[in-house]
Amino acid sequence: MKKRTLGKSGLLVSEVGLGCMGLSQSYPPFPDKQEAVTFLRRAVELGETFFDTSELYGIYRNEELVGEALEPVREQVVIATKFGWNIRDGKVLGLDSRPETIKRSVDGSLKRLKTEYIDLYYQHRVDPSVPIEEVAGTMRELVSQGKVRHWGLSEAGVNTIRRAHRECPVAALQSEYSMWYRRPETDVMPVLEELGIGFVPFSPLGKGFLTGTIDETILFSEQDVRRSIPRFQDRQNLKTNLKLARVIRRFAESRELSLAQVALAWLLSRKSWIVPIPGTKSEARLMENMSAAYVELNMEDLEELDAILGAYPVMGERYSTEMLELVDN
Fold this sequence. Notes:
The longest helix has 19 residues, at about 235-255. The chain is globular and about 55 Å long. By secondary structure, the protein is α/β, with parallel strands linked by helices. A seven-stranded parallel β-sheet has the order 3-4-5-8-9-10-11, covered by helices on one side. Strands 1-2 form a two-stranded antiparallel sheet. A two-stranded antiparallel sheet has the order 6-7. It has helices at about 35-45, 60-70, 100-110, 130-145, 160-165, 190-195, 230-235, 235-255, 260-270, 285-290, 300-310, 320-325, and strands at about 5, 10-15, 20, 50, 80-85, 85-90, 90-95, 120-125, 150-155, 170-175, 200. The chain is built from twelve helices and eleven strands. It starts with a strand and ends in a 5-residue tail after the last helix. Strand 4 (about 50), helix 2 and strand 5 form a beta-alpha-beta unit. The chain has one domain: NADP-dependent oxidoreductase domain (TIM Barrel).
């Protein structure tokens, strides 16, 4: 598997990572733990080295299965997880990035992940009640203790990124970015390039939208996060957005590629320090996603895709109102 370095951090990862959240929440049905462990170990056999999880996903369960799966190959892989939540008795009560909470969180994650260190530790959402300088100072302490090797931010705005990076160098930003959400190009990406910070787009396939598996008849279960997202929930938005998917699919098929391969190859072409983390539970989809690292789009291809994206604007918000309130701008 081809690899990339996240910015100037020196952290080398596979060009296409694996988001593990869907194994435990947001995208049902979910495999049982042993099925998930087997799948993750197969991913390593196929060349995957970059695995993304969080204490939040399934409230600890996702970290537990990732830890069990990767323990035998720990030195071969890069594990990213996240902190920043007030979790009590299995319930999330809100954001909490106080230093004492972070220190409890990292110890819990280390235990669940069956490891002595975390390769990349993200603040999952910016906590407005805790100055980012305090968070960065805590990260510096954890790095000096050897518990964390690199740290990052998720869904953070430009001002927060700059302030955090001054206190303790940020290795990567993880935020949504794809053909159907391009705002990072105008705000955060220039700052990431300036500071030498890597970019790890989550939902690089638009929460399944850019896989060709969604149509106007789809019904999402109550456990499915897309049930609350206006881009999917509103039928007019969905109908409009599917026009974009169909055009890109035709583009892909004319080049004997899948829609997902084109969407991921497009992301990889944007900057050399971008590493998307599509999620999947299927070995076939995993191989399809990983193969995007070997797809080369020429200048004419990229110009045609940009013209398509300009002609078919995406309708609807990417998050529910509740989730949008957690995004740092």
